Amino acid sequence: MSFRRPRFPGERALVTGISIDATGSGMYVPFTLVFFLHVTGLPLGVIGVVLTVTGLAAIATVPLAGTAVDRFGAKRVQLFLYVLRAVSFALFPLADQLPTFAALALLTAIGTRAFPAVLQARIAELVGEGDRDRMQALQRSLGNAGLGAGTLLASLLIAVGGDAGYVIAALANAGSFLLAALLALRTPASPVAAAHGRAERPGSYRLVARDRPFLALILANVLVALGYTSLTVLLPVYSDWLELPEGLTGVAFVVNTALCATLGVPVGALIRHRFTTRSRAAAAGAGLFVLSFLGMTAIGVVRPHHVSVLLGCLLAAVIVMTMGELVHSPAAAALTQAVAPAELRGRYMAAFQLSWSLAYALTPALFTLLLSVDGRLPWLVVTVTSLLGGALLLRVERSLAPEAVRFPPRTASALPT
Fold first, then answer.
1. In whole angstroms, what is the distance from residue 104 CA to residue 158 CA?
2. Pair 382, 230: CB distance under 8 Å
3. I need a surface site. Which of 137, 177, 244, 260 has the fewest CB within 10 A?
4. What is the pLDDT of residues 122-153, one digit of tens each?
5. Cα 241 from Cα 193, distance rounded (Å)
6. What residues are paired with 159 via a beta bridge?
């Protein structure tokens, strides 16, 4: 991406903030349980229970974040969540007692769960219709690059500093959120808030619940999002079921992260050129999921005996899955932003974010149950859900506003530089 000429006010600050936020998250997400074990000193089992309970409880705050966005503007809520996450991580090294750790874990979970919906609303506030698809692809690319960089940085800190490295990583993560907040301060206020005054715009989730086409989009996303979780939740245990040597599964995560980081923007530009509507592009991404998951099922049927062949087949399926992610994600996100009324955008984004939260909450228990029957069964289930999700995206297209569904015309400002 070139920074010679920003495409919208605040672009440089927004993009840099997304990168820094992702890098900070990468410093603890891959090591969550071990991270908190070394930072707090509490028993691992207790930490696991606390993180699970607080994570589920935080889902209930996502609708509140949506309401706050519609009332105060996405920028103010974004800044609040950055500061909340920064303070939580800065205080974690002092949380050697269970009540303190539980309180800080809850605050962190609230910030983590609510932030994606707020960020989507903020992007919609700042970015014009003609550039939202590119921004969605760029955001995903930067997010994966930052996650990989943060993971590498945390690994180096831990390798050099030992237990102290975890504390340094916690403080560095807090600093990254504060730095991202300072950058967010440099972005313009919401034009909708400035023009209309959000506090004077009545609305509630009842209006979202009456929007049947949008509810169909949420259902479609739940069905497809079940497939997204397969990489982190299902693949590790499936590899064990296939008797792949320990440690090799990590190669799949590296490949997925590298492809998302490097190909997100080019693939995003390609789908805007090849498809006429966002819903069809998103459905095509779901179709790639179907192919990948059928391939995973076939691997379980054939069960190659040579490790190199088995790993190669798994990586091929992961690459197809990653391409599906790169095609589906920006189109589905931009479509959701386009159909949301400006005065209710926070609530719409929050409702859509709940579809991701629901999928990630359901799959650990679902996949475990299915794996106990047959290791290939979970892949067949996500094959069906992805197929149904793609079909629903195509069906709902006719019920949505044409200007929201269609990709905007490619203008000089929207062309890659």
1. 22
2. yes
3. 244
4. 999 888 877 888 899 998 898 888 888 888 88
5. 53
6. none
* Distance, first Cα to last Cα, the chain: 6
Please report, as a single letter, which amino acid is at residue 289: F
pLDDT digits (tens, 9 = 90+) for 295-311: 999 999 999 989 999 99
* Whole-number Å distance between alpha carbons of 390 and 285: 8
* Separation in Å, CA 269 to CA 61, 328, 358: 35, 13, 30
CA-CA distance, 83 to 80, in Å (whole number)?
5
CA 230 – CA 294 distance, rounded (Å):
13
DSSP 132-151: HHHHHHHHHHHHHHHHHHHH
* Mean pLDDT, residues 370-389: 95
* 180 pLDDT more than 90: yes
* Partners of residue 277 on adjacent β-strands: 406
- Check pLDDT > 70 for residue 416: no
For residue 406, list its beta bridge partners: 277
For residue range 205-219, what is the model confidence (pLDDT) as tens digits? 999 999 999 999 999
- pLDDT band at residue 48 using 50, 70 and 90 as cut-offs: confident
What is each CA distance from 73 to 43, 126, 316, 351, in whole angstroms? 40, 11, 43, 17
CA distance 128 to 414: 10
Residue 1's pLDDT band, with cuts at 50, 70 and 90, is very low
202 pLDDT more than 70: no
Contacts of 21 (CB under 8 A, 6+ apart): 82, 146, 176, 177, 180
Long-range contacts of 168-172 (CB under 8 A, 24+ apart): 169/27, 169/28, 169/35, 170/28, 170/35, 170/39, 170/89, 170/90, 170/92, 170/93, 171/89, 171/90, 171/93, 172/24, 172/27
pLDDT over threshold 60, residue 20: yes
397's enclosing H/E stretch is: none
Q: Round to whole Å and give the CA distance between 323 and 145.
A: 16
pLDDT for 203 equals 66
Q: What are phi and psi of 219, to 5 degrees?
A: -60, -45
Residue (of 350, 355, 323, 326) closest to 337 by Cα position: 350
The pLDDT value recorded for residue 417 is 34
- pLDDT at residue 42, rounded to an integer: 83
Determine contact, residues 131/416, Cβ cutoff 8 Å: no
